[in-house]
Specification:
It is a single chain. The protein folds into two domains: 100 residues, no CATH class; 52 residues, no CATH class. The chain is 68% helix and 0% strand.
Length: 164
């Protein structure tokens, strides 16, 4: 039961993230309500705890849950395991840290698509670095002044850690 609850909450968060990331600029109007019967049997099984309240959910939430459940069903076992681990980490965060991450997500969403893509690519390059190099970069980042960080983020100069 707890795992089903966690999965449902995870699906909601994942779907909301995917939904926000994929919203087309200039899309007019709110989404249409999604009928429970339009979900596949596998989706209905994953979302069974919402069955009785489905018609009372906002259409945005219905759509997000439907997309999240479909995404979940399309994942490999390894991807599901990774997603469950990320969700566990999210649940373990203090509410203040979650709020900071939500704010950062909102800031990211407000960036132009080209800037979002540049950030995604930089993040992927960072993730592909050896763990030791990532740790060193994090250490340097934490030693920078706020001004150095801003300059580094905008690529205006090669920032040096504070005091170096």
């Amino acid at each position: 039961m707890r795992k089903a609850l966690s999965l449902g909450v995870f699906l909601w968060i994942a779907a909301a993230s995917v939904s926000l990331a994929q919203t087309a600029p200039g899309t007019a109007g709110p989404p249409a309500p999604r009928q429970w019967q339009s979900l596949s049997p596998d989706q209905q099984h994953l979302l069974q705890k919402y069955q009785d309240s489905w018609n009372n959910l906002p259409p945005e939430r219905q759509q997000a849950l439907a997309r999240g459940s479909q995404r979940w069903l399309s994942m490999t076992p390894e991807q599901r395991s990774s997603a469950e681990q990320r969700f566990s980490e999210w649940r373990a965060m203090p509410p203040e840290q979650r709020q900071v991450l939500r704010q950062r997500w909102q800031e990211f969403k407000s960036l132009p698509p080209g800037e979002q893509q540049r950030i995604r690519e930089s993040y992927q390059r960072f993730r592909q670095m050896p763990a030791e190099r990532r740790s060193e970069l994090r250490r340097q980042w934490h030693q920078m002044t706020p001004e150095q960080r801003r300059s580094f983020q905008h690529g205006t100069h090669a920032a040096r850690p504070h005091g170096h």
